[in-house]
Design brief:
CATH superfamily of the largest domain: GHMP Kinase, N-terminal domain
Radius of gyration: 36 Å
Strand content: 25-35%
Low-confidence stretches: 707-722
CATH class of the largest domain: Alpha Beta
Distance between the termini: 142 Å
Helix content: 25-40%
Mean pLDDT: 90
Number of domains: 5
Strand order of the largest sheet: 8-7-9-10-21-20-18-19
Shape: elongated
Length: about 725
Amino acid sequence: MSKKVQVSTEIAGRTLTMTTGQLAKQASGSILLQYADTSIFIACQTGPSRPGTDFFPLTVDYRERFAAAGKFPGGFLKREGRPTQKEILTCRLTDRPIRPLFPKTFRDEVQINMNVMSSDGENDPGVWAITGGSAACMVSPIPYQGPIAAVRVGLIDDEFVLFPTVEQMKESELDLVMAGSKDSTLMIEGFGNQIPEDQMVDALLFGQETIVEICKLQEELVELAGIEPFEYDEPEENPWLKTVEKEAGDKIKKAVQKNQKTERSAASKEVRTELVNKYFDEDETELEDGRTLDDLKEAFYLVHKDVCRKLTLSGKRLDGRGPEDLRQIDCEVDILPVVHGSAVFTRGETQSLATVVLGTVRDEQRVDGLFDEVAQNFYLHYNFPSFSVGECRPNRGPGRREIGHGALAERSVAPVLPKKEDFPYTIRIISDILESNGSSSMASVCSATLGLMAAGVPISQPVAGISIGVVTDGEDYTILTDIIGDEDHFGDMDFKVAGSQKGITGIQLDLKIDGINEEIIRKTLEQAKNARREILKNILTTIRRPRPELPDSAPRIISTKINPEKIGLVIGPSGKTIRAIQDSTGAQIDIVDDGTITISGPSKDVCAGALAHIEALTEEIKVGRIYNGKVSSIKDFGAFVEIAPGKDGLLHISELSDGFVKSVTDVVKIGEQIDVKVIAVDDQNRVKLSRKAVLAEKGLTDQKPEESDSDDDNDDYDGEEE
């Protein structure tokens, strides 16, 4: 395309502009999307399919450049490194609604590259990347069946807010990102503070109105650019399809109805192997008539999928359950010694082992992002080893899937955690998936809840999660509670819902079809609520409430807040004071700029000792109060008394005693502990003390009884009269 085309509209009080034909003209399609002063450049590039590819190779890459916010990246090289967790999650958010809108048989390479070029610090560019990705596909020569658009919906003061700013999101009870076409919803990713199901549906309907508007803007852009729809010819029917249906259809039907995952897999493989061996000799890959081994395997997959779907639609689930039935649930806590909390949650053949570790402020995760640096005091790490699905492959660290599942579980649990000021611990949860056959992320939510309560973390409500599936056939559909791996693989939907008895905390929708309607969404949420309550019963049977005490192995933490102007008193010159407190008490002390002080140690007594030092250092010296102080130095005119760590006051010689004082050392010595009263604090914060006032207040005196004349006359009295 050679000409520049631009369209604009107003969304939520700010201008949305999309431009094509100006930048990256050698790319298959490109878009410059601007919302207010935030700009994202998106390029879509296509390429020929690779031989042997049996899936749609869509790649999405999203990057937030520090330069977009006028910042330098950290590190020695001063260059963006590996994608951050937020960037990876945005890639997933973009991929999930776009992928289903390509033909099932399309195998060409498609890459969508998205770079944030300018950020105004108010509008999060992540959600706009989804819309930009769709627009770039719309202007590219590919069989993309869009458009789609995405919106973010917040909830502030019980009112929905469209595209809330970064500051508004700090007050929002809901963070909902949804994508859809003009007719239906394709993707949902939302987190909230126990949002009721009806309110969540209302939020989705609220967002859908704007999705329609943004989709129409993309269609206007395509029309103005003169882009014709791409004609895609579906490949011919697989030459093996009828043969497999005839010879193996009944065998497949029998194989997939075995109750255990391993049994179903083994039985299905046996049927396929039998079929392959019938038509192909060893090392043979193509017959004389041109039919290939790959075609046979693909045909087997298609028939296998069709059998599973038809069984489900007829009311027969693969493992014999009813549509709303849960699998067997088992819960156990305290299976690991030493760690601060542990739990195992098992649902059917899916099992998550949660390990909970409690740390101090120094264990917080620091994240330097486009807007500012964030200190995260709760994080959940999700591990999915290959043995959990009976496979053997290298474990090379977390991929996008692990990061996505971990983030979903983490944000689903976060709303019920105590506030930082009430529970000043850093919390880390590790979810190790030991078995997997459907919705391990939701199993992680359940095991995390069990582990937190076992560790004594005072969560407000237990939370649980479940995955709901759907199989559709035209207008007919069947909604399935607690889907297994095969139902996820051959079905049309994976709808994960997490929450408490009160409402939803996390929600995620992935589709393989081009959308679902309001009816399916409402029924899904209702089934999910019923299932969630059943799971919560099992959790509460295992452990009723958070334990009242932390385990002995957990650190003890006390948090206090002082006047920020007094931070220097606690730290002291070159850190001398704070080091002395830490050395003398054995506590660890951390201070932030707002005056919040976190004290941690192996016991409550250690923390209390350090707190006492800090309180003494920072407390306001009050006139009229009596302090027990230590004489730090003596002068001719009086003594200096340390009444608080680092805080001396002058005890003038005239205030030493209620009697005549010839020398200061006649009354007090260096190092002596004495009671003194604050009688004045001048405008330079100098403290005047009095010992005499303390004596008077306590009814004591330093004066000796005066010796009389009669006493002198009787010095020689021997007891006898003359």
